[in-house]
Amino acid sequence: MPGPAARKPPAEKYDERRRALAESALITLGELGYAKASLREIANNSDFSHGVVHYYFQDKHELIVFCVREQKSGCVRRYDDVIAGSATPEELVAGFADKLVETLATDTAMHRLWYDVRTQSMFEERLREVAEEIDGWLEDMVWRIVSRYAELAGGVPAMPASVLYAIVDGLFQQALIGVSAGRHEVLGELRTLVHGLLPTMITTDVTPGVPTPA
Amino acid sequence: MPGPAARKPPAEKYDERRRALAESALITLGELGYAKASLREIANNSDFSHGVVHYYFQDKHELIVFCVREQKSGCVRRYDDVIAGSATPEELVAGFADKLVETLATDTAMHRLWYDVRTQSMFEERLREVAEEIDGWLEDMVWRIVSRYAELAGGVPAMPASVLYAIVDGLFQQALIGVSAGRHEVLGELRTLVHGLLPTMITTDVTPGVPTPA
DNA sequence: CGAAAGTCTTGACGACTGTCAAGATTTCTC
DNA sequence: GAGAAATCTTGACAGTCGTCAAGACTTTCG
User: Is residue B13 included in any domain, yes or no?
Assistant: First the structure.
């Protein structure tokens, strides 16, 4: 009985191939989006045939969820270097802004796909789990950035993590829409914006910030 | 030659029916989203048959664009009453927060659809025009709110319109995701958040805000 | 009333979708 | 190298989709 179950030879070979298929799929997914990326189109832009998907994945849904989770998992990790490598608040904010702008310009299609999946999760229950998981990763990432920034600047975050993330996400998404529409000047604007915004996200004296709800 | 061209009898009858069809379509569109709402499903949830769509609209795309533009056009207008009816900054911010929360709870499906269309506009060029148009409406709306708030409070907006909109939109979208997932407590949190956030969006003294990019 | 214009329903079309089974091909093991 | 296991290809399946044409029904108007 062939299939994904009962792996005998080094199961890593299987996982490796699985990952390779997912990486190929990401190209088409990022280009066409969740709804319009068919398995045949995904296979055409890769070295696989359209039938092999069901050898490595149960169905299209499992493939896409795997792809997005894998891609976003690596994306979130990239910011840890910024935190670890910054000794001053100025360094940290510059590193953060640069990374944001860099990934926005480089991985445009991947970010499009993420927002697509998150939006579809409002219509499809099956996507809700992975969307909430990744949203959590991103919120934690923003929180780590702002927390460390506050620490270096001798203050504390002025807003709860969910609010910080919502603001950064709103700005990033608007910039992504701009880049997707060909307005590449938004890249520089986003960098300037982050430089100006981060100081307002912490409290260094008695100035009150946005109170936490509930 | 029957068809949308060459209207003789009161053309308003035609427009009226067109609008009625669009309003019915919004039900299904809001429930299933842009991609999964088929013309047959749209017709099933209405008094029309699936073929009549091409009598009033050239194709599915034109129907959806018409639906979303019509819906959002009315949605944006609702905030003007808040501006006109508020005599103090506190009244304005309370009215704004209440309207946001109210429409979030009442028109959940419509907001889902809007974010869906805007996200799809990053993949489909044909959607870009209407998405940018509506984004402009919303940005103007937020700008009018904050401007009037600043005026009443004796200050000026601390950030450019695009940034104000991106922040409000980020918070609203995060709340929408929460409501769609059944976490209705985010409604109250959003209200509290807006109350705390609006004062930070204007400058009443020499405190500098976020500088405008470019 | 009756003809013409407007409105709508029905059914069909080709294209596309995810899925899967049958078998070809490759890789591994003894 | 033979046989077995793993991997992959191919082709077909049942469904769904947007579109449209043919004609039925309704309204308008002389």
Answer: yes
Find residue B202's DSSP bridge partners: B157
Number of H helices, E strands in chain B: 10, 2
Domain that includes residue A149, residue range: 9-203
pTM for this entry:
0.92
Tokens 């048959």 — which residue? Answer: B49
**pLDDT value of residue B6:** 43
The mean per-residue pLDDT over the stretch A66-71 comes to 97
Residue B211 placed within a domain: no
In chain A, the N- to C-terminal Cα span, in Å, equals 55
Q: Which residues contact B82 (CB under 8 A, 6 or more apart)?
A: B92, B95, B96, B99, B145
Q: Do A165 and B173 touch (CB under 8 A)?
A: no
Q: How many domains does chain B have?
A: 1
With contacts defined as CB-CB under 8 Å, which chain A residues touch B181?
122, 128, 132
pLDDT digits (tens, 9 = 90+) for A197-211: 999 999 986 545 555
Residues in B closer than 8 angstroms to A197, CB to CB, are 210
- What is the distance in angstroms measured between the alpha-carbon CA of A125 and the sugar C1' of C16? 25
**β-sheet bridge partners, residue A203:** A156
In a domain, B176, yes or no: yes
- Would you say residue A214 lies in a domain? no
Touching check for A109 and chain B: CB below 8 Å?
no
Among residues A127, A100, A131, A209, the alpha carbon closest in space to that of A164 is found at A209
Determine if strand D comes within 7 Å of the CB of A7: yes
CATH of the domain at A28: 1.10.357.10
Query: How many contacts, defined by CB atoms under 8 Å, are there between A and B?
Result: 130
Among A122, A130, A190, the residue to mutate for chain B (most B Cβ within 10 A): A122
Distance of CA A28 to the CA centre of its chain: 17
DSSP state of A213: P
